[in-house]
Amino acid sequence: MPLYEYRCGSCTFSLEVEKSIKEYDRSQKYYCPDCDIALDRILTAASIHFGAGFFKDGYESAKNVKKSTSDDGE
Description:
This protein is an all-beta fold. The chain has one domain (1-59). It is built from no helices and three strands. The protein has a three-stranded antiparallel beta sheet, with no helix packed on it. It is elongated, with a radius of gyration of 22 Å.
């Protein structure tokens, strides 16, 4: 589930909100409890986490892939 991060522009307050993509509303505003101003959304790079069984489920590393022996030019 995506995690959206917001930060106050005038103090150090930050907020993390976990919402599904369907629930996320760009027009919804969050406000700093200390300054009472709208928080800025912090854009971060997406990350993908694979479980412990990722390589065990058939996604082998490239060094373990067998080369094709066909002579069709591919």
